[in-house]
Amino acid sequence: MRCVIARFPFDLTKSGVLETMKGVKPEQVIGASVIIGRRTYPIKQVGQVITRQDRRDFSAGEVLRAMTRLGFTCPGLPRNATPKRAVGAFQQASTLLGAPAAV
């Protein structure tokens, strides 16, 4: 499959990605990831190994699209992880003083 990562065209195959990632130790996964074989790799690590480019040269989205199109599982962030709303200074002070905050 032909895909463009960091403005460069690559012809990637699922078997080629499996072969390239064989023997590569996965780093700690913090954000987006891809499951290759029985291991879960950070998406930027996979992009770096496959393209032989610096991680700053491409986005995680480019590699995610390519890996998804090749048929790899790319687990995203949990859907129920909603960002908490920041509490304003007035609301925080009202809570600390025990009075209900006026909205």
> What is the helix/strand order?
EEHEEHHH
So what's the overall shape?
A: elongated
Beta strand count? 4
**Cα end-to-end separation:** 55 Å
**Helix proportion range:** 25-40%
Please give the largest β-sheet: 2 strands, antiparallel
* SS element count, helices: 4
Multimeric state: single chain
Strand order, sheet with most strands: 1-2
Structure description:
The chain is an alpha+beta fold and 103 residues long. 36% of the residues lie in helices and 16% in strands. It is built from four helices and four strands, in the order E-E-H-E-E-H-H-H. The protein has helices spanning 14-21, 43-51, 60-70, 89-97, and strands at residues 2-5, 8-11, 33-36, 39-42. It has a two-stranded antiparallel ribbon with strand order 1-2. Strands 3-4 form a two-stranded antiparallel ribbon. It is elongated, with a radius of gyration of 21 Å. The model has no long low-confidence stretch (mean pLDDT 85).
